[in-house]
Design brief:
The complex is a heterodimer of chains A (93) and B (418). Chain A contains one helix and six strands; from the N terminus they run βββαβββ. Chain A is mainly beta. Chain A has a domain of 59 residues: Folate-binding superfamily (Folate-binding fold, 2-Layer Sandwich), CATH 3.30.2270. The radius of gyration of chain A is 15 Å and the shape is globular. In chain A, 15% of the residues are buried. Chain B is an alpha/beta fold. Helix content of chain B is 28%, strand content 25%. Chain B has eleven helices and 18 strands. In chain B, the strands form three sheets. In chain B, strands 1, 2, 8, 9, 10, 11, 17 and 18 form an eight-stranded mixed sheet that branches. Classes of the chains: A mainly beta (93), B alpha/beta (418).
C-alpha cells in the first residue's frame, strides 16, 4: 500500500486517491490538424516506464484536487509530489 | 532429439528402475550464432509460438530465449481459467480457436496438461448485468460457442455452496454458463510445449536476458543478450508485462500499460466447488484446484507497476465479494497470495502484430486473461511470424487498430474478470 502526500492535505492512505495515468500528456491544441497517427499516439500510446514514472493522482476522498507524483514503478517508492502546473523539481514554471 | 513417448508402458518400464532413468524433458543447449527465428519470452505463449513455428510451419532453426526459467512468469502465476465466451466476433473466434486446441492439447503434446472442462459460470447481479449476459450468450451461440443461461435455482443445483437467496448486497440474478470452459494445469502447459518444441529441434535457452534489439536499415538483425549477441532473421517478442520495455529497445512505443494483478489460494479443502465461478460486478473469481485449494483471482491495481505485488485493499475487496457469494468460505484460511505484471490494452484485447521494424513481431497486451489463449495465441503468432502477415484470426489484432480506430471493445463484455 502507498502513503501519498497530497500537496494540500498531507500524507494520506492510498485508498483516498484515484489514479490518473501518465502525467504531462498535453492535449493537442488543434486536433483537427492531426493525422490519424499523431492522434492515435496522443490517445493510446504511453511510455509505460519501468523506473521513475511521472503520473497523476486525484485526492478523490479528500480535497478532490489533481496533482503529480514521481514514483518508481519497480519499488513503488514515491520520489516526489508536486502540484499540477509545477515542474517535478517543485518550482513553478 | 527423438524422445520416448510418455505412456502407460513407459511409466511401467521406468517404475522397474525406480524412476531413475527418465530422459530430460528438454535440452539446455548453448545458443548458436544465428537462428531463423528467435522467440523472446519463455512463458506459455512464447513456448507455444516456438512449438507451432517448428511443427506447423517447418521453420528450421528456432531459439527461445527466457531471462529466468520457462513458465516462471505469469504462466506460473495465473488462476488457469479457460473459456471462449467473448462478445465480439473477432475475439470470440480467436479464443474459440484456442479452446479447440486445448481440447486436443494433451494428446498433441503427449503431455497431460490436465485440461478439465468443468464449466465456467459468469454471474449477473443487476438487471443490466443480465441484459449483457443475454446479449453475450446469444452472440456466443451465433458464433458456435456453447453458452447457456442459468437462473438462481439452476445455479444452486450446480454450486450448492453459493448464496443465491437474493438477500445480499449484490444478489445473484442469474449467470451465463459455458460447459466447455474449465481449468488446466499451468506448469504442465509450459512443460508440455517446451518438451514438444525441443523434440522438434527448438533450442530453449534459459537464464538468457535480451538487453537490446539490433537493427539495420529498419530491419531486425538479431538480439543482444546476457549471453552475447545472437543473430536472427526474425525476432518474435512475447514478454507480457515487459512488452513496453522490449518495444523501447526496438525504438517504438506500445498502447499498453503494465499493472499488478493479484491472486491467492486457500488451504486445501475437501471438494466443495466443481466448476469455475466468476463475477465481474463484485470482481472475484474462484475455482477449486485438484489439490483442494480454492484458487481466487482479484483485480488489477489502478496504478502502473512492474513490482509483482499489489495493494492489500484489492485483496480485501476481492475476499469480501467471495465471502458474500460463499458464506461457508468465511473461515477458510488463505495459504499464499502473490502478484504478477499484466500489460493491459485500452480495449482489453491483445496485440498480435508486425511492428514498425521489419522482421520484428510483438504478441502482447493480453491483460488479465492471457492463459486461456495460450495455444491459440502461439498458433496465430507462429503463422504471423512465418508468413510475415497475420492469420485471418488475428488480422483484427494488429497494432494499426490504435491508429485506424477499429478497436475491439471487450471491456464491458468479458474484459473485467478473467
Amino acid at each position: 500500500m502507498l502513503e501519498i502526500e497530497c500537496p494540500w492535505c498531507g500524507p494520506r492512505d492510498q485508498d483516498e486517491f484515484s489514479y490518473g495515468g501518465e502525467a504531462h500528456i498535453v492535449r493537442p491544441l488543434s486536433p483537427e490538424n492531426l493525422n490519424d497517427r499523431e492522434w492515435g499516439d496522443y490517445l493510446f500510446f504511453r511510455d509505460n516506464k519501468k523506473g521513475q514514472h511521472a503520473e497523476q493522482w486525484c485526492h478523490a476522498a479528500g480535497c478532490r484536487r489533481w496533482f503529480n507524483v514521481i514514483r518508481d514503478t519497480v519499488s513503488y517508492r514515491i520520489v516526489s509530489v508536486y502540484r499540477s502546473g509545477d515542474s517535478s523539481s517543485g518550482e513553478s514554471p | 532429439m527423438k524422445k520416448d513417448r510418455y505412456s502407460v508402458f513407459s511409466l511401467a518400464r521406468n517404475a522397474v528402475n525406480y524412476h531413475q532413468d527418465w530422459a530430460e524433458a528438454w535440452r539446455s543447449p548453448d545458443p548458436a550464432g544465428e537462428y531463423d527465428v528467435i522467440v523472446v519470452g519463455g512463458g506459455g505463449h512464447g513456448l507455444a509460438t516456438a512449438y507451432y513455428l517448428a511443427s506447423e510451419h517447418n521453420v528450421g532453426r528456432v531459439a527461445l530465449l527466457e531471462k529466468g526459467w520457462i513458465g516462471g512468469g505469469n504462466t506460473g502465476r495465473n488462476t488457469t481459467i479457460v473459456r471462449s465466451n467473448y462478445l465480439w466476433d473477432e475475439s470470440a473466434h480467436l479464443y474459440e480457436k484456442s479452446l479447440k486446441l486445448w481440447e486436443g492439447l494433451s494428446q498433441e503434446l503427449n503431455f497431460n496438461v490436465m485440461f478439465s472442462q468443468r464449466g465456467v459460470m459468469n454471474l449477473g447481479h443487476t438487471l443490466q448485468d443480465m441484459r449483457d449476459i443475454y446479449r453475450r450468450s446469444n452472440a456466443n451461440r451465433l458464433n458456435g460457442i456453447d453458452s447457456e443461461i442459468l437462473l438462481p435455482g439452476q445455479i444452486k443445483e450446480i454450486v450448492p455452496a453459493m448464496n443465491v437467496s437474493g438477500n445480499t448486497r449484490h444478489p445473484v440474478l442469474g449467470a451465463s454458463y459455458q460447459p466447455r470452459g474449465g481449468v488446466a494445469r499451468h506448469d504442465a502447459v509450459a512443460w508440455g510445449y517446451a518438451r514438444a518444441a525441443d523434440s522438434r529441434g527448438v533450442d530453449i535457452i534459459q537464464n538468457c536476458e535480451v538487453t537490446g534489439i539490433r537493427q539495420e536499415n529498419g530491419s531486425v538483425r538479431g538480439v543482444e543478450t546476457s549471453r552475447g549477441y545472437i543473430g536472427a532473421k526474425k525476432v518474435a517478442v512475447v514478454v507480457a508485462g515487459h512488452a513496453s520495455v522490449l518495444a523501447q529497445m526496438g525504438g517504438f512505443r506500445l498502447p499498453v500499460e503494465s499493472h499488478p494483478l493479484q491472486a491467492l489460494v486457500s488451504e486445501p479443502l475437501k471438494p466443495v466447488l466443481d466448476t469455475v465461478v466468476m463475477s465481474n460486478a463484485v470482481h472475484g473469481y474462484v475455482s477449486q484446484s485438484d489439490k483442494g485449494e480454492l484458487v481466487i483471482g482479484a483485480g488489477i491495481d489502478a496504478y502502473t507497476g512492474y513490482g509483482q505485488r499489489g495493494s492489500f485493499s484489492i485483496i480485501e475487496g476481492n475476499v469480501a465479494a467471495i465471502v458474500e457469494l460463499f458464506p461457508v468460505f468465511s473461515r477458510v484460511r488463505m495459504l499464499r497470495q502473490w502478484g504478477g505484471i499484466v500489460d493491459v490494452c485500452p480495449d482489453a484485447c491483445p496485440i498480435i502484430s508486425k511492428t514498425p521494424v521489419n522482421g520484428l513481431y510483438f504478441n502482447c497486451g493480453w491483460g488479465t486473461g492471457g492463459f486461456k489463449a495460450t495455444p491459440g495465441s502461439g498458433w496465430v503468432f507462429a503463422h504471423t511470424v512465418a508468413n510475415d502477415e497475420p492469420h485471418r484470426l488475428n488480422a483484427a489484432f494488429e497494432l494499426d487498430r490504435f491508429y485506424s480506430g477499429a478497436l475491439i471493445d471487450e471491456h464491458g463484455a468479458a474484459g473485467v474478470a478473467h
